[in-house]
Amino acid sequence: MKPKIAMIMAAGRGVRMAHLTDDRPKPLVEVNGRTLLDRVLDRVVAAGITEAVVNTCYKGEMIEQALAERSDIQVRISREETALETGGGVVNALPLLLPAGQDGFFVVNADPIWVDKTTSIFDQLAAAWRPDDMDMILALVPKERAFGDVPDGNYFIENGKARRQRPGEKDIPYLYTGIQILHPRVLADVAVGVFSLRDFFDKAQATGRLGHMIYDGDWYHVGTPAAVSEAEEKLKV
User: Fold this and answer.
1) What is the pLDDT of residue 236?
2) Residue 166: DSSP 8-state
3) How much is the pLDDT for 13?
4) Within 13 A of 35's CA, how many CA atoms are on the CB side?
5) What pLDDT sits at residue 150?
6) Per residue in 23-42, pLDDT tens?
7) First-to-final CA distance of the chain
8) Which are the contacts of 72, defined by CB distance < 8 A and separation ≥ 6?
9) CB 22 within 8 Å of CB 97
10) SS3 assignment, position 93
11) Which residues contact 9 (CB under 8 A, 6 or more apart)?
12) Is the Cβ–Cβ distance between 23 and 11 less than 8 Å?
């Protein structure tokens, strides 16, 4: 079943954006006149997802003001006094994600832009999601379809399973897109704190409960001023 709710990770400042985040949080940086956050929410709405939770910290009041202008999706705010990173941010927001996300919810970083070639990335994830066998499923993209400030890659596929890179490994073929489905049972007994979801990816990998989907579209990581310029040039809209 396709999740009905999405968590948008929007609490970070985005220090690598340099001067672009001096007066605004990273999710409100614009690409061709539209903010990164609105671009993500546009895709969420287009996929038929009716609810979203957005976490905020740095200049969070600006994000809340921007979200107040949207009437096409129900949005709740999860405020963080200090940025809790991805794991802590989701744990802090769990009361707002349930019960709608009791069988799984989307988690989406606020800084990628993606261009679907067939069905939406959300539909592709939902089609591959097996909550009885998986604790989370990650959308991965081949490096040749990744643009912007792209890291060296972080996942291999071995024997049909995703495996995160080990120190010193090179020529890593896949990147995590920052988009996934997560089952709330993973974090049910976890206290709020500052930690990354990556720790839980590794635990699920070790127990055989990490799912993956290879996304068939193009993906842009917009994390630096140069990446903003590249995305504007390539996308044109």
Assistant:
1) 80
2) P
3) 87
4) 19
5) 86
6) 999 999 999 999 999 999 99
7) 32
8) 45
9) no
10) helix
11) 55, 86, 89, 107, 108, 109, 110, 178
12) no
The first and second tokens of residue 33, run together, are 């006149």
Specify the pLDDT at position 114. 97
Question: Residues of 73-84 as b/e, b for ≥16 C-beta within 10 angstroms?
Answer: eebebbebeebb
- For the chain, list residues with pLDDT below 50: none
Range of the domain at 57: 5-235
Q: How far apart are CA 62 and CA 43, in angstroms?
A: 21
**Which residues, listed in sequence order, are joined to residue 9 by a DSSP beta bridge?**
55, 109
Q: Classify residue 200 as left (phi > 0), alpha (psi -120 to 50) or beta.
A: alpha
Is 16 strand, coil or helix? helix
| Beta carbons of 111 and 26 less than 8 angstroms apart | yes
Q: What DSSP designation does 215 have?
A: -
Name the token pair of 42: 């546009």
CATH number for the domain spanning 132: value is 3.90.550.10
How many separate domains does the chain show? Answer: 1
pLDDT at 237: 59
Q: How far is 96 from 99, CA to CA, in rounded Å?
A: 8
Structure tokens at 186: 């993973």
In this structure, what token pair is assigned to residue 206? 């070790």
What pLDDT, in 10s, does the model give residues 46-75?
A: 999 999 999 999 999 999 999 999 999 999
